[in-house]
## 1
Amino acid sequence: MPINPFTPDEQQRIVAAIREAEKATSGEIRVHVEPHCANANPLERAIEVFAHLGMHQTKEHNGVLFYLAHADRKFAVLGDQGIDAKVPDNFWESTKELVLTHFVAGNYAEGLSRGIERAGQQLKQYFPYASDDTNELADDISFD
């Protein structure tokens, strides 16, 4: 099973979705992909990856991780504590549902891109882009 299930064009589309979403928010979005989930629960693995990528170090604690274990068909979206303190309980549900509708059809890049776009739209309400905002986390996809 390949570590990277995406074509170069699909990767570029996902990264472009991240960059576009981050234009409207100070939030930081990352995507991490691996074939297999090391934990039974993908949210627990997402928490580990979040820490490994240093995503908790953003100034406003407003990092968002899209985690995908493609061979195991497991997925999670995780927001840092700054986001959790401000958003309603169901904040990520519509994003997850949107992503999963594309995943079921095997369209992982499309699902991630659409989910990232939706997350960016939601994040700008709580963490609008500021003129002095800096890109605190890399926009590229990380792989294990």
## 2
Amino acid sequence: MSGHSKWNNIKNRKGAADAKKGKVFGEIGKLIRIAVKEGGSVDPASNPGLRLALEKARTTNMPRVNIDRALNKGMGKSSTGGAIQEVLYEAFGPGGVALLIEAVTDNANRTSSEVKFALTRNQGTLSGPGSAQFLFQKVTEAGTLRYVPVQPQPIDEQQQETFESLLDALKDLEDVEEIYTTAQYETA
């Protein structure tokens, strides 16, 4: 008679649906933060990128609390009153591929441990300052700072699967904004 509990079935379905919603809300929150940062304003009338992100939030029924949190984070304010800081983590993934992970956080210790946990679960290691950054060149495109690999590093198919799961784990973290890598592989 296992598997016949109505409550257990409801709980499992609701848990799966909530996980999907949470992922979508996280992505939209990131869009809102980026739009506020790039536009420099929390006024949707003068910031078209923000207006678009807010429309997406409304269509997915994102709670107002989450929207306000993303707006504040984009302006450099945190809900606890602490300062928001930008952090750049340097790491190495499967096959020795270098990673630069940009994060915006109000608690650097929490974000550091989350990034380290995601890396260790996916055959990656967090490294010290300057250990991977020299493999990238800073480039400014349309007023935005980006990192371009100096010498891309090819990886094989087995490493590619592990590397893609590492990227997914890092992208799922709320504070991670951008990930740059020296990996060179074909996407499916």
## 3
Amino acid sequence: MNYLIIDTALDVAVYALKVDEQVYIKKSLPGERHSESALRFVDELLTSVNLKLSDIDVFGVNIGPGSFTGVRIGLSLLKGFLAGRDAKVVAFNSLEALGYDKYGTVCLRASKDDYFVGDAKGDAVDNVRVLTNEEVASLKDAFEESEVDALNELAVTQQKYNKGELVSIDTLSPIYLKLSQAERQLKGATDES
């Protein structure tokens, strides 16, 4: 089985290719623009093992939470790759990848004021939500992560694939736990009216 993982949701983008039992990983540098590097990284991964997109059996994609633009880049890239194709797609969220094989409350910085939070239970993360810095500080079993491990993303993707948790590329949508900056500004203008 050949797996391709695309994760552009966080500051460091992660691209992973698993061919049989061999794993190949590419990561962007912090601050590198995902819109400029995503195609190059996927191409480099596939070229390095002489594969084409049509050779991929399962695609995994991070649907957030994370950067609004980053999440949209990854989803758009995958939708472009798979337009008109019937493909096996697994969607995972950032906290599932960060909390894989861990127990406790996984926290991912959302902004200077709050965190994306989920309850990690080894092979699953549930109760995904947004908490303030103060609320996170009061959690006894919380641990903060900032960078996703590509091997965790592969493990989550394989686990979901084996359970039959596939999604249609046509209905694939991001997880947004907060309003975008534009929505917050619009809401503020509306509240003032």
